[in-house]
Design brief:
6-stranded mixed beta sheet, Immunoglobulin-like, 8-stranded mixed beta sheet, about 40% strand, globular, mainly beta, 3 domains, binds copper (II) ion, 6 helices, binds CU-O-CU linkage, 32 strands, about 5% helix
Amino acid sequence: MPPLLPLTRRTLLTGSALLAGSGLLPRAARAAVVGERRAVRLSAGPARASLAGAGFPDTAVWAYDGRIPGPELRFRQGDTARIAFANALPEATTIHWHGLRVPNAMDGVPGPSLPPVPAGGRFDYEFPLKDAGTFWYHPHVNSGVQVAHGLTGAFVVEEREPIRVDRDLLWLLGDWRLTKEAELAGGFGHPMDATHAGRIGNTVTINGAVRDRVSVRAGERVRLRLINAANARVFALDFQGHAPRVIALDGQPVTPHTPPDGKVVLGPGQRADLVIDMEGRPGEGFDVVDGFYPRMAYRLTRLTYGDEAPLRDSPLDAPIALAANPLPEPDLAGAVRQDVVLDGGMHGAMPKTAGPRGPFWALNGVAAMGHHHLEPLITVKRGQTQVTAFVNETGWWHPMHLHGFPFRVLSRNGRPAEHREWRDTVLLGPRETAEIAFVAEEAGDWMLHCHVLEHQETGMMAVLRVTA
Ligand code: C2O
Ligand code: CU
């Protein structure tokens, strides 16, 4: 249960928001409360966590509310979220609400007019929740270090009319590089990582711990929300013995489908919502295997069936398609086109200015270091539809993330995308091209970057400026 502390006067008077969040109100009563302003407190600071499991000491981490991952923030579509944030870290930070359509000033990107939250400082984030779905939050300052220290959390916006499932589960996937004593390994931003695949770890956690098993019940239908909160690791999850169906990508509903080759691929920053019918028998167990990196497949966990009698004999017969979010549809006929070429990295064309710490990567030949005083790479008028092909000329994987505007994926390597899915992060394989389209609906400077944080911090970041 997330610690939803009611702060607003209205909430204190009626208590209804608290009840709505606690699941104590029947569904009809909850649905009636729309447009509620709901407040939570959140802090970031040093903590200790048991990540690696029994037999290992705790790890010194940075955490939201002292927990790894941070509290699961749960709101409902149409409500307004208010997060009273306090920074107890030894350095400045911000919170970026990854994938949520928030006003520019609430996006957690530091800039000349919006400094980061200093050590000991506070900031109140407030934004209406336009879209339902699975989102997440993390810092946007010194991210390669702060995210690797554990500053990540899930942000779920519930649909007003949810689909019928027996359980709603969430796995926030973390990836840690730990020493034998389970301390965080140093060497953040090391050029060896930055010029290659990023800081890939050696310990993968589900909701902050290595988990040998996850208990399930025969016959139940589970909605599983997956979040890749790793700095750099890509996942390709194979749910052995099961046939998950993807119902949302990056929080946005998609035509329900079984993923290609049965594997759920998640680049850093990406999410997938799955519906899984637990079709095994009581007492059985099935591995969930991550096989993204060839010859380095490992068991993420094991779905372990309890001994109870099956909940039902055949899978639940109920629709699984989610209602679309109110996103503006791109007007392809009237679109402007701005392509973005990714270059650099080991064995690639590194920027001429590369020093020992970078920059190692570039977008359209421009290598950005840090957030400040970035000239926009792309300028577009508000309301305009933009079509962009990301052209990956490197030999590496890059999850390209755009703030502010979920986009449709139109094509990959010139072939139409089967589901034209909405995303906020598109994963590009080596030498791959993906074409996207979106409506630039809010003015401001918005970040566009690779979500391999060591790439982002060594050149693979740019600003999209939307003018009023
Ligand atoms: Cu999840 Cu700009 O980041
Ligand atoms: Cu990258």
